[in-house]
Amino acid sequence: MLGGDHSIAMGSVSGQALHHRAQDESIGLLWIDAHTDINLPDTSPSGNIHGMPLSHLLGRGIPSLRRLAGKQPAVKAENVALLGIRSVDRTERRIVKETGVRAYTMTEIDERGLPTCMQEALGIVSNGTAGFHLSFDLDGVDPRVAPGVGTAVFGGLTYREAHFICEASARTGNLVGMDMVELNPTLDDRNTTAELAVELVLSALGKTIL
Ligand SMILES: [Mn+2]
What we know:
Strand order of the largest sheet: 3-2-1-4-5
Distance between the termini: 27 Å
CATH class: Alpha Beta
Bound molecules: manganese (II) ion
CATH superfamily: Ureohydrolase domain
Structural class: alpha/beta
Number of helices: 8
Number of domains: 1
CATH architecture: 3-Layer(aba) Sandwich
Largest sheet: 5 strands, parallel
Radius of gyration: 16 Å
Shape: globular
Strand content: 5-15%
Number of strands: 5
């Protein structure tokens, strides 16, 4: 799924989840982002729906949106991992703790290294699931590398770290779906972010250097 606003993940992940549920399977969710996107309509300081998709996928929020995958939430919190986090609203910190999703902040990635964090995250999203969906918000990448996003935050993933995430996801053989979102061409610098997005999708589809 190409976007656009990260709120499209409510549809893409729910659709993927429904497909697998019909076969008695569940999916994991790997969420790459500067933000946790776990606000609720009544806690969001901005009111932006692109800051709320994860809550709805976990079964909270507006009934019509949280039930896109049916009565059960699209994903279980124990199978959700976030990577690249560095901008979290005060209201979201509480929701992160309440839900129990695993959020790898840039501080933790600095400290432990991306490969270690990625390996753990892949374990979380794969544990007991039929595969996992990769929801890639381009603002997870540092804005020096990916400037064409609406809510840029410095201190993000490097160019290579972004590729590593996609390459390692492809290597598992368990990647069942993907979003590449939040590209805003009017904010881009000579199409660099759009071109990065295409390269990242190729890495996620299995393109390797050698
Ligand atoms: Mn996002």
